UniProtKB/TrEMBL annotation:
Protein's name in the database: Fungal N-terminal domain-containing protein
Lineage: Eukaryota, Fungi, Dikarya, Ascomycota, Pezizomycotina
Length: 577
């Protein structure tokens, strides 16, 4: 029998025994004070055991110490109940001297004192267990609520970035000029998100300081109400953003004269921007969004106007609110993040060519990799999901695939960003936190720095790439959000038709503390012109929950260890249109 089942049985037996003892002890009116104390302790212990019996913690408990206490408690209670049963107690003995005499004949006064001491010890021990259990439960609940608040806040910021990206792309393809209503929808969505951020911040502050919510239970209630409201609001926002797809679909099918391929592709662009908006729990039914009805007349040429909308800063979150585009040079931008480079190893960015051994894959994997490398077809992301192996670096056959692809891209002058997480799993001297946290920090910083190097020599943008902003990337977990926001700002500025990103060993940086931001990192990479390849030797729950089956090649499909085709021999088949 396991610990949980044993505890349930022992608690039930102890309750039955204590009920007998309590009934007899409370009926003795002429006995010593010791019996009175036994009656009181028995009553208290009975109440606690009845509460413990219904606790969810018991049904899943593996606490061997609690099992020891309950085993000893049940033994002592059973022996005392058996002795009292031999006294021949009857209900009509109440308030009579004869009752104490019959009880005393079975249990000596010294035994009553010893039993009183034991009951007191069991009472204190089990009360301590319940206090610890309640404290841990409340702490965990508070932690999860706070984590949920931060995650929702980051998700809303991610939606803002998506709106910015949609607006940028619409401007490039002149969609806004041809369809003023489309620009109006974008502005409305942005204003809604801005309002939700302000509402989220104000409700959170009100919840923390609200005097009517006293104690942990009140705080939990407040936070749960905020969570529910925010989820419903996000659902509404997602519905409104998805309305853009219908707009773009109309553009594609309208057949207006003078359209270009870029104009037709607007539907695809918008679909990619909003397809990976935050998932909304099925238990919250979103309010409906009435799609904007458009007619061919709405798509006449119109004077293009730029939006000066900006997002005010929220408490504790400093956002870029530049309304006038700044002029930047690549030389100046690359001066700012030099201190960040100390947090990752260049060996993990791009292994030396001399250390790269040949890699072979089966036909299915070769076909999928070639399809992924062609920017006009296939999925934007691909995951090679291999089984766990203790082999590291070039000893790992899947890691060698990533190394060879990076080398092929470099030789073909294809822009590629890479990081081999398992090659640099141990933290650099400056990275902080657990190995997973330090590895995630290094990965984020390495990708950001490589992306910066791909920016144009000169460009104008309303983003903040100042030294002050990069100074926040100080190696702490608190810098993860800043890194992801910087990445989201950089990617839309890249002019290359396609940029390839190869990340190997994602499983090494996945942890309960990094999971939420790892999802946001993947969301940030899922936008044009990025094409991302993930390689793992072991399960990544974040990738499993984020990528679709069509974007995944599992171990059985990879055929690792079998005879295959050499990647280098098929080099000419990669990076082609």
């Amino acid at each position: 029998m396991d610990v949980a089942a044993s505890l349930v049985s022992l608690i039930q037996f102890a309750i039955e025994g204590i009920q007998i003892i309590q009934k007899i002890a409370t009926s003795v009116k002429e006995g010593p004070d010791t019996v009175v104390y036994v009656a009181k302790h028995a009553s208290d212990l009975l109440h606690i055991l009845q509460r413990l019996k219904t606790s969810p913690a018991i049904a899943q408990s593996r606490d061997t110490k609690l099992l020891e206490w309950m085993t000893a408690c049940n033994g002592d209670v059973s022996r005392m109940a058996a002795k009292l049963a031999r006294a021949g107690f009857k209900a009509d003995d109440n308030l009579s001297i004869r009752l104490w005499k019959s009880v005393k004949s079975a249990v000596k006064e010294k035994e009553w004192k010893e039993f009183q001491t034991k009951l007191h010890e069991y009472l204190n021990s089990i009360k301590m267990f319940l206090s610890v259990e309640d404290s841990e439960k409340l702490f965990d609940m508070s932690r999860r609520m706070d984590s949920g608040y931060e995650l929702m806040h980051d998700r809303l910021l991610s939606l803002i970035a998506k709106c910015d990206s949609i607006e940028t792309r619409c401007a490039r393809i002149e969609a806004s000029a041809r369809n003023p209503q489309l620009q109006g929808v974008i502005d409305a969505v942005r204003q809604d998100i801005q309002g939700q951020l302000q509402l989220l911040a104000s409700r959170h502050e009100t919840c923390i300081s609200q005097p009517s919510c006293t104690g942990n239970e009140g705080e939990t209630k407040c936070k749960s109400e905020v969570t529910r409201d925010v989820v419903e609001d996000i659902a509404t926002l997602v519905d409104r953003v998805k309305g853009l797809i219908a707009e773009a679909g109309f553009l594609q099918n309208s057949g207006l004269p003078g359209y270009s391929k870029q104009w037709i592709d607007s539907a695809t662009v918008l679909d990619r921007e909003v397809r990976f908006a935050p998932d909304i729990s099925a238990q919250f039914q979103s309010r409906g969004y009435v799609n904007v009805r458009v007619q061919p007349a709405d798509f006449q040429a119109a004077e293009h106007t730029t939006s000066d909308l900006c997002l005010p800063c929220l408490p504790g979150h400093k956002l870029s609110t530049v309304t006038k585009e700044k002029q930047w040079t690549l030389e100046n931008v690359l001066e700012t993040p030099k201190s960040v480079e100390a947090f990752f190893s260049m060996e993990s960015v791009r292994p030396a060519p001399s250390s790269i051994r040949p890699a072979s894959v089966n036909r299915m994997t070769m076909s999928r990799l070639q399809q992924w490398s062609k920017r006009v077809s296939g999925s934007q992301m691909l995951w090679l999901n291999g089984r766990y192996t203790p082999k590291r670096g070039d000893e790992n056959s899947l890691t060698r695939v990533g190394m060879n692809l990076v080398e092929l891209a470099t030789h073909s002058d294809v822009p590629v960003v890479s990081y081999f997480c398992q090659s640099g799993r141990s933290a650099t001297p400056r990275t902080l936190g657990s190995p997973e946290e330090a590895g995630f920090t290094s990965t984020l910083y390495a990708v950001v720095v490589q992306m910066l190097r791909l920016l144009p020599a000169q460009f104008e943008a309303d983003v903040d790439l100042s030294e002050e902003r990069f100074r926040r990337l100080d190696g702490t977990n608190a810098s993860w959000g800043d890194s992801i926001r910087i990445l989201s700002d950089i990617i839309p500025l890249l002019l290359q038709p396609a940029i390839y990103c190869i990340l190997d060993g994602v499983q090494w940086i996945e942890h309960s503390s990094t999971g939420a931001h790892l999802r946001l990192f993947i969301d940030a990479l899922r936008q044009e012109p990025m094409r991302v390849l993930f390689i793992t030797s072991g399960l990544s729950r974040v990738l499993r929950d984020t990528l679709s089956k069509e974007e995944t090649l599992v171990y059985e499909e990879l055929g690792v260890g079998r005879q295959g085709e050499d990647l280098q021999r098929h080099a000419e088949a990669f990076w082609k249109e």
